[in-house]
Amino acid sequence: MIFLRLVSNIKDAPIKLTTSRNTLIKCILGICVLTPFYSTADFQGKWEPEQEPKDNWVIKAEAISYLYNYEWFKRHGGEGYTLFGNVVPIYASTQLSSSVQLDIGAIGFLKYGDSSQNALKPLVKINIDLGRQKNLILGTINQSHNIHPSLSLDNDLYKQQVEQGFQFTNSNPDNTIDTWANWVTAETYESAEYFEVAFIHNWTFLKQDKLSLFSNEQILTTHKGGQLTSDPSSIKGIWTQLGLGAQYSNQTILLKLFNSSYKDNFTPKIQGIGFEVSYINHWEFENNAQLTFKANQYVSDNFYNPDAHPGYNQKSFTQFNLDATWLRNDQLNISTGLTLDWINGSFSTVQYLNVSLIAL
Fold this sequence. Notes:
- This protein is mainly beta and about 350 residues long.
- Helix content is about 5%, strand content about 55%.
- The protein has one helix and 18 strands.
- The protein has one helix spanning about 20-40; strands at about 60, 65-70, 70-75, 80-95, 100-110, 120-130, 135-140, 165-170, 175-185, 195-210, 210-225, 235-250, 250-265, 270-285, 290-300, 315-330, 330-345, 345-360.
- A 16-stranded antiparallel barrel has the order 1-4-5-6-7-8-9-10-11-12-13-14-15-16-17-18.
């Protein structure tokens, strides 16, 4: 996959949050309880016929080149910056059985102009097909979570992060689920433990002619800290998003309510809420070409997330997006777009071009 991108107005600092081990246990138990409930609500999935396991390995590779540009206008105290580099995942894949796939390889990171950021990270994934469009992934999990930018931006590849843990997904388009736990840093004497647990659910509960009604729920909690480490970090944070939308033909109206709770060593507990209304218009053309226009208006009362899009930490935020994509076969995907942001009297812009190519 070749990835060329010019983007701006996204905070590059990693999340640093924490919660107690009891809270972690509650989060994992909550996921275990919620996931079967939502997954069993899917009665429209179709069982795929059993296939004999393949007795061979297949080499797969992606080449991802990115150009990231952060630019503000009329902002006091600093300017934007540009990142340019490559991400190259290469791995071997095999079917251990009719429902279990194993991927083993590595992901290489190369950042031009800063060799200290170059890295090689392992890719080890076990993908278990549970049937009815449901999968359980152990090891290197899928990072395309479609999480709202008020909660997290950690799935951007230019940050050179690889998520390791476990993940449950349901890909039914009327009842999608993405639940995961990502362990970033294990606790040592020098380093504090750091992980995140999240749950995303989209449910289309009404379809009639060209009209459909749907809901979207997202929860993210992160932890950084420990009992045996010398690292004094003790940070707690949890964010939620509840959304309700209506789609008629190619137009969509979406209302979203946000809640945040954050505390660290130097900051007393911050609790806040936010509200956003979005309008989306989507067109599909021949030859797999698509065009999408999106407008967002956001207001908040003390909402705070250090890893969110910076607009969501302000009292008001307006954004416009225009995106075009073209898909050829299953290996070539070209997309381009323009984003305009208005935050507290400051204007920023995003221009990007993505050319994605997968070599099998």
